[in-house]
Write a structure and sequence with these properties.
By secondary structure, this protein is α+β, with helices and mostly antiparallel strands. It contains seven helices and four strands.
């Protein structure tokens, strides 16, 4: 898939088919994520793969009840790990590393014919407890991944003249 087609074709999906994700596709997504740039190459993020349906339900309950998460056969929880970063403020760089990694996963999934929806509406402590994340790891994003069961309408975007500023 050509890059600009990939970027322009990606959209958030909130309904997923029951079809499982092939192991090879999940592996490619994780490998692409591992190539994401990071501050100082410290790679101050962790990825938790949630494939078990019961665990996906527990995670969904911690996200203001976004039940569509359970439909996706896999969700990735992206957690920042500031202890890996030697730059200060470590939390800032870890947050940046984590969001870049999640973006790479989202685009890789789309390139493989899968759909995602970036989930940022949750209480971090509740998601960490639901997923059993280790101390020091703060969840930043959840990415349900699956084959789409809907084709949502394209969302509008602000005009470039509204967001781009010359200094």
């Amino acid at each position: 898939m050509e890059f600009f087609d990939l970027v322009n074709g990606r959209q958030s999906v909130r309904a997923y088919a029951s079809q499982p994700i092939e192991d090879e596709k999940l592996q490619k997504i994780l490998e692409a994520t591992n190539r994401a740039p990071s501050a100082g190459n410290f790679q101050s993020f962790e990825i938790y793969v949630v494939a078990d349906e019961a665990k996906r339900k527990i995670v969904a309950d911690a996200t203001f009840d976004q039940k569509f998460i359970v439909q996706a056969p896999v969700s990735l929880i992206f957690g920042m790990n500031p202890a890996r970063c030697q730059y200060q403020p470590a939390e800032l760089y870890a947050m940046q590393d984590t969001t870049i990694a999640c973006t790479f996963a989202m685009l890789a999934a789309h390139a493989l014919g899968l759909s995602t929806c970036w989930i940022g509406a949750f209480i971090p402590a509740k998601v960490a407890a639901a997923a059993g994340l280790p101390d020091g790891i703060t969840p930043v994003a959840i990415l349900p991944i699956g084959y789409p069961a809907e084709q949502p309408e394209r969302t509008s975007r602000r005009e470039l003249s509204d967001i781009v500023h010359s200094l």
